[in-house]
RNA sequence: GGAGACGUCGCAUAGUCAGGUCUAGUGCACCACCCUGCUAAGGUGGAGUCCCCUCCGGGGGACCGAGGGUUCAAAUCCCUCCGUCUCCGCCA
């Protein structure tokens, strides 16, 4: 949710942001109207309520013979109050609907435009070249006995898979490397629930336009999360945070579930786009003024991880139209996937400024002792998808895969993954 | 799954049976000041969150786990839900 004060004082900023995203500008005016209506309704309810309270005192202290008459009078007042209260509640709800429909205010410097209008900030690492025909990650995975799509489909359907043998080990190794880096960076590890209540799901903004991406369990009214960001943001919901020891940083590990409803026939081969995968996610709560620095810090951790794994990558600054509704700016790190001849997203880090925190009612104390919404940020540190770039980049002609130095300690010193016979 | 107890403005508690000076009391912790030859004890005052209005002095409203209901009036009575605890049953 954006700052209602900003909507009132500086609606043009909100309009410009909506425009940059290609979102509805008209929503802004609708929200402003709803705000005015809400305030008027609240004022008239409170006036009547004050009157009723004063009158109630007269009734309770009145002599017995006058009481009946006073009560009759109070009855009429009560019905007016009830009506006014209903109007205030309705107006409040209408305003909340209107303002939550507005996306977060895009930060200055974010490229305008849609999905293809990103700006490449840098390309790092040499694109790998092979003197043989490289195999794709699934072929390698099958040779190594690491990935089993067929049995995944047999048991659970399309877009499900098994990681087995060195595949399973490799994923755990990547996660552990990420965790090690996160710990060094002051992140508290957190293994999170993956089933959450509706209010947490909507509070984090995942029940908006893309709600058909989300698995839902009607019998229990719970949602399966597509990222631990949901549980990490909900962790401090309704709390007033203490930043006297700096930002609060968490590294959340969880299995993630996505319906991939809109992805049609995209990435149907292998484990690039699957219904279930694992992810280590960074999450930070900071003061609003520290958010941009924290965002850069997260990006640096992500780049450090890709470098440690010897992957070629580029960093892009996502265009306004491609931002999630909560994000004010988003950087993606994309790794080179040899058999596709292009970069594919491995990580994403979003600065949600105070948008998410306002919805979830997460605040901190300012110097004057008042409360104010905090900023929240999230960023990927490792996922199952990384296996794709890792296997393809470090493959050898015989189908074996060289393990990057940084991962060896997590694989018992293993230097090479060998095809199984 | 069954039975029961409970949820009060940081923490701990009173208030709920018998609805109305509850404008929610008290203790601890906290802040300011006073007193005191110690960082102790004591005294006075302050202090929650959210929202609305404001001539920026202040004024008003909401919040007793959440949401409804009854009533002129609800922390208090009724219903639903959530959570915690105890006992029983069942089970990885």
From TrEMBL:
Positions of the UniProt region annotated as Disordered? 1-20
Q: In which pathway does it act?
A: Aminoacyl-tRNA biosynthesis; selenocysteinyl-tRNA(Sec) biosynthesis; L-seryl-tRNA(Sec) from L-serine and tRNA(Sec): step 1/1
Domain Aminoacyl-transfer RNA synthetases class-II family profile: from-to ranges: 186-404
Annotated site residue numbers, Important for serine binding: 380
Q: Which UniProt keywords apply?
A: Aminoacyl-tRNA synthetase, ATP-binding, Coiled coil, Cytoplasm, Ligase, Nucleotide-binding, Protein biosynthesis
What's the catalysed reaction? tRNA(Ser) + L-serine + ATP = L-seryl-tRNA(Ser) + AMP + diphosphate + H(+); tRNA(Sec) + L-serine + ATP = L-seryl-tRNA(Sec) + AMP + diphosphate + H(+)
Q: Does the keyword S-adenosyl-L-methionine apply?
A: no
SUPFAM superfamilies, per the entry = Class II aaRS and biotin synthetases, tRNA-binding arm
Localization (cell) = Cytoplasm
**Per UniProt, where does L-serine bind?**
227-229, 258, 281, 378, 380
Composition skew (Basic and acidic residues), residue ranges: 9-19
Positions with a binding annotation for ATP? 258-260, 274-277, 345-348
| Annotated Gene Ontology cellular component terms | cytoplasm
Which regions form coiled coils? 67-94
InterPro entries in alphabetical order: aa-tRNA-synt_IIb, aa-tRNA-synth_II, aa-tRNA-synth_II/BPL/LPL, Ser-tRNA-ligase_type_1, Ser-tRNA-synth_1_N, SerRS_1_N_sf, SerRS_core, tRNA-bd_arm
Domain text: Consists of two distinct domains, a catalytic core and a N-terminal extension that is involved in tRNA binding.
HAMAP family assigned: Ser_tRNA_synth_type1
Q: Quaternary structure per UniProt? A: Homodimer. The tRNA molecule binds across the dimer.
Q: Which family does it belong to?
A: Belongs to the class-II aminoacyl-tRNA synthetase family. Type-1 seryl-tRNA synthetase subfamily.
* Name this protein carries in UniProt: Serine--tRNA ligase
Originating organism: Ruicaihuangia caeni
Recite the lineage of the species. Answer: Bacteria, Bacillati, Actinomycetota, Actinomycetes, Micrococcales
Q: Which gene encodes it?
A: serS
């Amino acid at each position: 949710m954006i700052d209602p004060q900003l909507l009132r004082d500086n609606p043009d900023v909100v309009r410009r942001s909506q425009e940059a995203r290609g979102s509805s500008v008209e929503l802004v005016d609708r929200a402003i109207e709803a705000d005015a209506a809400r305030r008027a309704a609240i004022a008239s309810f409170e006036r009547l309520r004050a009157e009723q309270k004063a009158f109630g005192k007269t009734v309770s202290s009145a002599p017995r013979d006058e009481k009946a008459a006073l009560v009759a009078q109070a009855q009429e007042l009560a019905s007016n109050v009830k009506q006014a209260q209903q109007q205030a509640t309705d107006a409040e709800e209408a305003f909340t609907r209107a303002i939550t429909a507005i996306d977060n205010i895009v930060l200055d410097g974010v490229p305008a435009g849609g999905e293809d209008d990103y700006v490449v900030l840098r390309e790092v690492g040499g694109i790998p070249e092979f003197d043989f025909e490289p195999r794709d990650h699934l072929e390698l995975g099958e040779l190594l006995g690491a990935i089993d799509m067929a049995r995944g489909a047999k048991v659970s359907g399309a877009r499900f898979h098994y990681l087995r043998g060195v595949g399973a080990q490799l994923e755990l190794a990547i996660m552990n490397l990420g965790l090690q880096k996160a710990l060094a960076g002051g992140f508290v590890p957190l293994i999170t629930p993956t089933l959450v209540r509706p209010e947490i799901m909507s509070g984090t903004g995942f029940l908006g336009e893309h709600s058909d991406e989300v698995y839902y369990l009607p019998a229990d009214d719970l949602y399966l999360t597509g990222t631990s960001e949901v549980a990490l943001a909900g962790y401090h919901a309704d709390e007033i945070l203490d930043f006297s020891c700096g930002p609060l940083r968490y590294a959340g590990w969880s299995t993630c579930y996505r319906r991939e409803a809109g992805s049609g026939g995209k990435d149907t081969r292998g484990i690039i786009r699957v219904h279930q995968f694992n992810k280590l996610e960074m999450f930070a709560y900071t003061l609003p003024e520290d958010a941009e620095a924290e965002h850069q810090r997260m990006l640096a951790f992500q780049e450090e991880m890709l470098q440690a794994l010897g992957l070629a990558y580029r960093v892009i600054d996502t265009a306004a139209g491609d931002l999630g509704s909560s994000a004010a700016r988003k950087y993606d790190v994309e790794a080179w996937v040899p058999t596709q001849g292009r970069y594919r997203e491995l990580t994403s880090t979003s600065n949600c400024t105070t948008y998410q925190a306002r919805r979830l009612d997460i605040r901190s104390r300012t110097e004057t002792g008042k409360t104010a919404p905090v900023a929240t940020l999230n960023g990927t540190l490792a996922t199952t998808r990384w296996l794709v770039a890792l296997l393809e980049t470090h493959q050898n002609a015989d189908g074996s895969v060289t393990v990057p130095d940084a991962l060896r300690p997590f694989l018992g010193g293993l230097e090479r993954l060998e095809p199984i016979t």
